[in-house]
């Protein structure tokens, strides 16, 4: 087992010299998570708006379900998807297990409740007169909806940033449905878990530094957007 000081030095060396394997893992991790957040955001915003501005049968049940999903562990989501996507599962014919597509689906499930909950709160806190005024001026419902979302854009951006932060660092779901396959589904969290279990800390520390920097940037952005939202 390498010493921590030597491992830390090696970690910085790997980052600064552009180690191919290391940056490939980082690229896979960001690629999967960015796809997940991009696919999920439009649907989550539509659901959030519907929860805030319409009254339909099952609305309270949907809100309760979303709030329950907030506490759902990533490994449980991974287990459920593994059962669904395995060869003996109902979706086994899709052959998605141990692929990046399966990881994207898992991360979409994980970030959806965060996006809905935070976006719903932001939209509810907005001025309802923006919706009413837009409709009065002859705007279509979708134009009025976009007007409302623009008014609370900083709160919505904070929701997106928080959702991305949730999935970029999750390990349980990605490990179960991605399989941690080198050059294909090995992302930052699964690589850290693997390298640490082998006692090879250099790559794990390097990837951990990436997550720490990312966490600082994301938290700064969330604070920035919330502050701008409060001033709006």
Q: Can you describe what's shown?
A:
With 232 residues, this protein is mostly helical. It has one domain (4-231): MetI-like (MetI-like fold). 78% of the residues lie in helices and 0% in strands. The protein contains eleven helices and no strands. It has helices spanning 4-16, 20-53, 59-70, 74-85, 100-125, 129-136, 141-151, 153-168, 172-178, 188-198, 201-231. Helix 2 (20-53) packs across helix 8, helix 6 runs antiparallel to helix 7 and helix 8 (153-168) runs antiparallel to helix 11 (201-231). The termini are far apart. The model has no long low-confidence stretch (mean pLDDT 91).
Shape: globular
- How many structurally independent domains? 1
Instruction: Spell out the CATH superfamily.
Output: MetI-like
Count of DSSP E strands? Answer: 0
Defining traits:
MetI-like fold, mainly alpha, 232 residues, globular
Topology, element by element:
Blueprint: H1 4-16, H2 20-53, H3 59-70, H4 74-85, H5 100-125, H6 129-136, H7 141-151, H8 153-168, H9 172-178, H10 188-198, H11 201-231
Concise synopsis of the structure shown:
The chain has helices at residues 4-16, 20-53, 59-70, 74-85, 100-125, 129-136, 141-151, 153-168, 172-178, 188-198, 201-231. With 232 residues, it is mostly helical. The longest helix has 34 residues, at 20-53.
